[in-house]
Amino acid sequence: MTGSYGRGLLHLAAAVDQVGVFDAERYVELVRLAESGGLDFVTLDGRFGWAEGDPVTVLSRVAPATRRIGLVPLVNAPPGAAADLDRVSGGRAGWWSEQPEPGPAGAFPVRVADATEEAARRPAARYADVALVRAASSAQAALVRDELRSRAQEFGRDPEALRVLVSLMVDLGDGERAAEPGHGGGGPRQTVQGPLYRGGPVDLAELIASWHGEDATDGFHLVPAEPRRDLERLVNGTVALLQHRGLFRTFYPGSTLREHLGLARSMADEVKGLFL
Q1: For residues 108 and 86, what is the distance between their CA atoms, to the nearest angstrom?
Q2: How many CB atoms are located within 10 Å of the residue 191 CB?
Q3: What is the CA radius of gyration of the chain?
Q4: Alpha-carbon distance values, 11 to 207, 218, 238, 252 (Å)
Q5: Is the Cα torsion angle 259, 170, 101, 105 positive or negative in sign?
C-alpha cells in the first residue's frame, strides 16, 4: 500500500520536555522557538510527576504567549479535560493519552496516540487523529503506517484522516559534523529508549526528506536529547533546510491544530458554524 495515499508537505512536531523544570516561562521560550519554525505542534509529557502543575496547566499558561502552534499534553485523563486548553488556545489543543478514549474520530481536541506496540495499533487506527510510531528504519515505519491506515479503513474511516508520524530522539550535539556510523544517512540506532539519531542538523534534514520521499511517514515527532540546544539547531538548521527544499511550510496557513495537520474540522467547529 505504500505510496497509494500520495505525499503532501511534511508534518513536524517536537517534544519540549525539560527534566526538573516546572516554570512555565521556561516552556514559553521553547514553544515560541518551535513556533518560529512553523512546527505543527509541541508535546509535553506528564508521566514523570510534576511539582508545580500538570502539563495541561503549564500549556494553558503557554497558550496566551503563542499564536499558532499546537499544544499537546501527555496525560492519562479523559480528552474532555483538554476543553479548557482548546478554548484558551483558540482550537490549538491536542490530547495525547496512553489509552485512547472511545468516541468518534474528528471530535475535539486532536487525539494523539503512540501506536508503536502492536496492541496499541487497533485503538489508534479507530480513534486517533495522529499516531506516533518509534521506528529505526523507513521500511519499518512504512509497514506500520500501512497497517494503521488499512485498519482505519476497516473501521470505516478515511485513511487520509490519520496522520502517522515517526517519533525519533535526536541528539544534535555534533553540530554540522557528519553523522556517526549507524546514524544520519545510515538511519537511527536502536537504543533502550527507542531509535536515536545523533549527528548534525544537515544530515537530519536529509534523513527526514529521504523517509518522507519514500512515503514511509507523514512526518516526524522529534524528541531533543538536550531541549534548548537541540531545538534551536532543529529549527534554525534542519527545518530551514526542509523549507528551502519546499518540503515544509514557511508560514501557518490556518490558526488551529486541525488546520496545521490538514484534518477535517472538529465537531465543535461544525456546531459553531451553524451560528455564524
Answers
A1: 8
A2: 11
A3: 17
A4: 14, 6, 13, 12
A5: positive
What confidence tens digit (pLDDT) does each residue in 22-46 have?
Answer: 788 999 999 999 999 999 999 998 6
The position carrying cell 490538514 is 262
- With a CB cutoff of 8 Å and minimum separation 6, the contacts of 218 are 8, 10, 11, 145, 163, 164, 165, 212
Q: What is the pLDDT of residues 212-243, one digit of tens each?
A: 999 999 999 999 999 999 999 999 999 999 99
Whether 144 shows a pLDDT value over 90: the answer reads: yes
Residues comprising the chain, all counted: 276
CATH architecture of 11-273: Alpha-Beta Barrel (3.20)
Domain ranges of the chain: 11-273
Summarised one tens digit per residue, pLDDT across range 154-191 is 999 999 899 999 999 999 986 544 445 444 445 699 99
Q: Given 3-state DSSP classes, what are the helix, strand and coil percentages for the chain, each rounded to the nearest 5? A: 40, 20, 40
Triad 58, 273, 267: Cα angle to 5°: 55
